[in-house]
Amino acid sequence: MKARPETLDSGLRALLRLASAALLAMLIGPTVSAQAWADYADGIDAYGRGDYAQAFAEWQPLAEAGDRDSRYNLGALYFAGLGVVLDLERAAYWFGKSAEQGYALAQYNLGAMYAQGVGVLKNDDAALYLIRLAAGQGLADAENTLGDFYRHGNIVAVDYEEALGWYERAAGKGWPDAQWSLGVMLSQGLGIAADEAEAARWFRMAADQGQYLAQAELALAYLDGRGISTDRQRAYFWLRLAIPGGFEDDEELAASLEARLSPEELAEVEDWLQGGAPP
Questions:
Q1: Mapped to the 3 state alphabet, what secondary structure does the chain carry?
Q2: Span 243-262, average pLDDT
Q3: What is the mean pLDDT of residues 156-177?
């Protein structure tokens, strides 16, 4: 099989994660008028039904009045061109306003934009600073991205132990990309003693969440008996799930495994696919 990529693009993920009305209440407390609360909730409702222009109209006055969640949401709308003309500079502006008020998602997204030079001039120092701020608040995506930085030497010098620490934080929160990365580091012995069984455990946790690279790695672990017992049937199952990730070699290997399984075994795999996972 072809070598698998060492990392996923950790850049502009989750740019449309909107703050909930409950989170708004927690963040801004009783100083906000009942009308402002209603307007924000109306924006959430409009967004949910796909009326992005109305969502923008509800959130814009709140953003201009200083509400950090509404500022973040305007950034997300401008970034995706939902309800407004796509404008990456305006997206960065509103993410920046929200980030200044300590909103972790805004800090992360603006940091990712600085890292890639999207909507702003590329600035590695600003990217690292902002993503660290978000990670310091426990944002799993930011923790995972710092792990990627240290593992691959992006922006910072390679430091496998530092990478492991950030991946462990994010993986412990259930972040599938970090779980996959942690499995890779354990499998390869990067910054830690190699442990194929522990690697397979993390691959399984990520695979159960649909992380296709972890699904492919788990399939290979079953095929080669790396950290788990050899099981061609389970290898075939996980390859079937990984194939939509786009690896042509996975299709070839899956076809080879299919030819070696009995009709009864194949029928059982189909049952697993209907149910989501093998026992």
A1: CCCCCCCCCCCCCCCCCCCCHHHHHHHHHHHCCHHHHHHHHHHHHHHHCCCHHHHHHHHHHHHHCCCHHHHHHHHHHHHHCCCCCCCHHHHHHHHHHHHHCCCHHHHHHHHHHHHHCCCCCCCHHHHHHHHHHHHHCCCHHHHHHHHHHHHHCCCCCCCHHHHHHHHHHHHHCCCHHHHHHHHHHHHHCCCCCCCHHHHHHHHHHHHHCCCHHHHHHHHHHHHHCCCCCCCHHHHHHHHHHHHHHCCHHHHHHHHHHHHHCCHHHHHHHHHHHHHCCCC
A2: 83
A3: 97
Residue 184 CA: distances (Å) to CA of 107, 164, 171, 190? 28, 11, 13, 8
- What's residue 251's pLDDT? 82
Closest CA to 81 of 16, 7, 142, 10: 16
Give CA angle at 147 (111, 205), nearest 5°.
115
Distance CA 28, CA 276 (A): 41
Tally of CA atoms within 13 A in the half-sphere of 253 that contains its CB: 24
Task: Give the Cα separation of 8 and 171 in Å (integer).
Answer: 15
Model confidence at 55: pLDDT above 90: yes
CA-based angle 115:117:122, to the nearest 5? 70
Tokens standing for residue 117: 């030079």
